[in-house]
Amino acid sequence: MSKAWLATNFNPYQRQVLTDALAIAQGYDLQIYAVGGIVRDWLLLSQLISHPATNPAIANPEWPDLDLVVAGRDRAGILIAIALHRLYPASQLQIHEKFQTAELIWQVAATGHNFTLDLATARTEIYSYPGANPQVEAASLLQDLQRRDFTINAIAIPLTTQDHLEIIDPHQGISDLDQKQIRAIRPGSFIEDPRRIYRAVRFAVRFSFQLHPHTELEIRQTTASGIHAGIGGSRLKAEIYYLLAFSPAQTSQMWRSLAGLGGLGCIYDPFPLDPRFKTSWQRWQRWQYWFPSFFGDFSQQAPERNFLFLLSDLGRLFAQTPNQAPNLQLSGLQLSQLSQVGQLTRAEFCYSHSASRLVKQLEKFHPLSLLIHATKTSDRYQRRLIWQYFHQWRQIQSPLDGTALIQLGCPRGKFVGELLQLLRTAALENQIGSLDQAKQLAQDWIKAASSPH
Hints:
- With about 450 residues, this protein is of the alpha+beta class.
- The chain is built from 23 helices and ten strands.
- Strand 6 (about 125) and strand 7 form a beta hairpin.
């Protein structure tokens, strides 16, 4: 990494951090390189390729992630991280001994900066079975680049005090950037780690690239073999949540691409993707934007809501047999919500029913299940019905509370609840025009209930 490159591509603070990391590495007689996303994204912005990117999210003077590889001995990355943390004690140090890596995390509240510096020991990886965590051994830089997923992520720039800029590109990653394609470095890459299927699609959509024909063929062969079913639990959920970090349009494209490649078979095979998914996903996003009050009282935040929507095409299956996707290790609440989405596809709502009767029918379902169904259904009446339920009916409660009813002479016990429900029903049917009218109606019911039959 030449002095000029360092000076023009990083803000002063990150430039000082990298300069300090280089000095520490030189003191230990270690070699240190910028690799992965930082090099790839810089190349996308540079004139070294024919189609430089103009994405302002990439052209950020403070890079959100800095990836460095340190070569020369075991635990080299950890060694540099510990020494660097002494210089920047306000950063958070996280060490992963098993993988010979470490992270330094700068948070705005503590440091005024917001980025992560990943320091990895140059290493090789051995996978004992598809999807397993790898066993690692210290290795050379070229061996480290060989273990990576795609050619565009296997480009390195040495950190150096020299003026000359050296780019190490043993797998022609710059050529693939120029040709706007995602290419796996070696055969068997997706068998080693099937999560790379998700990453390949993410990169392709994020940068508007295409999958290299050989890479696409290997993905299809891997998914057809069922080997990718080894992805499960938190790792599978993490891959799905990564998709949700992008724009709604990109997430939709990624999800549909994964379905087309068979990549969703690790969730359920074959995954029953609704052909109207793109339209319903767009409507789902609009509802969350237009009607935030509908979602405001849920304990589940937007990422989890979106996660459930992506899985909602499994609803019919869940309604028949719970937990049709054990790989996801869903919670009881999530299983119930997906099952109810399936039940709603078969539910019938009569146009002639009263508001109170419809509310009673709708309240059998979890609110999130109702909202997912409303944005997925092609039945406009059901969509309007559920919209009216959230926009109007759900807000209508009994004009009187339990204390007021007791003061009016209502006996304590279950009759208080029954009377509250009767008052709410009357309010839904527009039979109550004022608080005094509600009190009079309640007194009449109390009197009738206390009269001998």
